[in-house]
Design brief:
The chain has about 300 residues and is mainly beta. It is about 15% helix and about 35% strand. Strands 3, 4, 6, 7, 9, 10, 12, 13, 15, 17, 19, 20, 21 and 22 form a 14-stranded mixed sheet that branches. An eight-stranded parallel sheet has the order 1-2-5-8-11-14-16-18, covered by helices on one side. Helix 3 links the parallel strand 20 and strand 21.
């Protein structure tokens, strides 16, 4: 049928079919691993590795590394490190990674992140990127002295305008904040936190599933585990949040409702008896921290405290 144009789409399909039949190798490139270290690796900096990488590649830090600013992650790459490797921020802000919308699908995993000095900022900032994973990292700042209200505001991560953010299996400690969770949805699970003023702060429009997280070093407890800010528009169940996260306190600033589990048994503590009469007529059985075997033990506890 001369004079009838051949569709480019049909022609392309025919070529693909012919390639499959004839066993022609695929032109798609396999994912690669790019290494980072001061000397002797594929790249000397994280920024250079990200620039050279393609979506799906893995960037692996092979030895302790110092960085002086943030690396922009604008591709769906995985950034990880060999066991025992620490990435230390030496700049004037703690921000080490900025994940932009083009970095949707990126993973930051298996890193130890810290800073040489006490500086403000988050180590990982996720802004407008979807389906990002932060997993298996250890994030901490230098030790801070004095009351936590005066601590430098450093944070493990912040997020805004995200969907599908997954934060799992991380150890976050010695920070003003573990995660400042704002504007988005996702899962925060299986993380361990201690020695923060607030482990997870839920800001405006933070709609996350939060379960299976726990408190770490009991000698350095966080001031609060989960704080739901008054501006948050998601109706969190305070008691359910407390029960779902081992030994983490919960505070809803809008309602004033709290969950405090000082003995970490998964049940919110009751206020202890203020007088002997509260122990009588079975009242002793209603206390759980401390708990009592009988009325006499409850009365003795009150008397011993004056």
């Amino acid at each position: 049928m001369t004079g009838v144009p051949v569709s480019k789409r049909v022609l392309a399909g025919a070529v693909v079919t012919a390639a499959a039949v004839l066993g022609t190798p695929s032109v798609a490139s396999a994912a690669e691993e790019l290494t980072v270290c001061t000397a002797g690796c594929d790249h000397p900096t994280l920024a250079a590795a990200v620039s050279a990488a393609s979506a799906g590649d893995t960037i692996r830090v092979t030895e302790d590394l110092t960085v002086a600013g943030a690396t922009t992650v604008g591709k769906a790459v995985t950034i990880t490190a060999d066991a025992g490797v620490t990435v230390t921020q030496t700049g004037t802000n703690a921000r080490t990674f900025t994940v932009t919308p083009a970095g949707s699908g990126a993973t930051i995993s298996g890193l130890e992140l810290t800073s040489a000095d006490l500086v403000r900022g988050e180590f990982i900032g996720v802004n407008g990127a979807d389906d990002v994973t932060i997993s298996g990292n250890t994030v901490h700042g230098p030790v801070q002295q004095g009351p936590m209200s005066g601590w430098v505001t450093n944070r493990a991560w912040t997020n805004n305008d995200v969907d599908g953010l997954t934060v799992t299996g991380n150890t976050l400690h010695t920070l003003r904040t573990g995660g400042y969770v704002d504007g988005g949805s996702g899962v925060i699970a299986g993380n361990v936190t201690w020695n923060t003023k607030g482990d997870y702060l839920l800001g405006e429009q933070a709609d996350f599933e939060i379960a299976g997280n726990s408190a770490g070093d009991p000698s350095l407890p966080s001031e609060w585990g989960i704080v739901v800010f008054a501006v948050n528009e998601t109706p969190y169940d305070v008691q359910a949040l407390g029960a779902a996260n081992d030994c983490l306190t919960v505070w809803d600033q809008a309602t004033g409702e709290t969950f405090i589990d000082g003995d970490c048994d998964g049940t919110a503590d009751t206020a202890p008896p203020a007088g002997k009469d509260e122990c009588k007529q079975g009242g002793w059985a209603g206390f759980n921290n401390p708990s009592f075997r009988n009325q006499g033990q409850c009365v003795s506890w009150v008397v011993a405290r004056g």
